[in-house]
Design brief:
- With 209 residues, this protein is mostly helical.
- It is built from 10 helices and 2 strands; from the N terminus they run ββαααααααααα.
- The chain folds into 3 domains: 102 residues, no CATH class; 62 residues, no CATH class; 28 residues, no CATH class.
- Strand 1 and strand 2 form a beta hairpin.
């Protein structure tokens, strides 16, 4: 087979940073329905899940994200019509939870970041498995995703996971929301983990370290 090709529904060997890589998925998002309620249900339970397989592996380019949001927005307000319709509510408000006055539709960019960050969660919580052994042999421990000086020689996939869940400005939310269960202490690092406040022991008392 020639690269790129499709295997189990996933494009192999393509460049996810290019718009044409996502074109087959975008084409699946077009459709019509009868009522506004039906449109909301389709967007939440069908249109938002169609790219799930893609978004679990690849970082969505901004231009593609904007395109998907446009399709969702037109589908919601335009009832499947091709011509432009008026959006009566800002999309960020549409994506809020119902309790906050929104419709509970997923923000596609945040959804993509969460799915990629889940790889870090899996690598940190799984005790064993072939997937974990392969990734750790290639990239090292999942803790490397918290290192701000990640190697530029790493794959684009690993760098994207680091970007959305590491210690950069965009990804610091992940480590700040972790809670540790010590157990026997095999998975924690006394000097390098944060115990009290925002500093690690090695930063608090560097001389002793």
């Amino acid at each position: 087979m020639k690269i790129p090709f499709v295997y189990l529904g996933m494009p192999i060997g393509g460049n996810p940073r290019l718009k044409q890589f996502w074109q087959p998925m975008i084409e699946k998002w077009k459709g019509k329905l009868i009522s506004m309620v039906g449109h909301v249900c389709l967007i939440k339970f069908v249109l938002s899940t169609l790219p799930l397989y893609y978004l679990s592996f690849y970082k969505l380019p901004k231009c593609v994200s904007n395109k998907l949001v446009k399709i969702q927005r037109n589908f919601l307000w335009g009832w499947g019509a091709e011509d432009k319709k008026i959006a009566w509510v800002k999309w960020r408000n549409i994506c809020k939870l119902r309790e906050a006055g929104g419709l509970g539709i997923r923000d596609i960019q945040n959804f993509n970041d969460a799915l990629l960050a889940k790889w870090k969660w899996r690598l940190g919580t799984e005790d064993k498995g072939l997937r974990k052994l392969i990734l750790e042999s290639k990239y090292g421990s999942w803790r490397n995703l918290s290192d701000p000086n990640i190697s530029r020689s790493s794959s684009r996939w690993w760098i994207n996971i680091h970007k959305v869940s590491g210690s950069t400005r965009q990804g610091i939310w992940f480590d700040n929301n972790l809670e540790w269960v010590l157990g026997e202490g095999k998975t924690v690092k006394f000097w390098e983990d944060k115990w009290i406040g925002e500093e690690t022991p090695k930063d608090r008392v560097p001389g002793l370290y």
